[in-house]
Amino acid sequence: MKIQITMLSIFMMTFMSCNTDKKKNSDQTNDETETKYKASHISEEILIENTKWVITALKGVEITNPEINDKAIHFILQPDGNRVNGFSGCNTFMGNYTITEGNRISFSKMASTRMMCPDASINETAVLQVFELADNYSIKGGVLSLNKGKRAPLAVFKAVYSQ
Question: Helix, strand, or coil here: 52?
Answer without folding.
Answer: strand
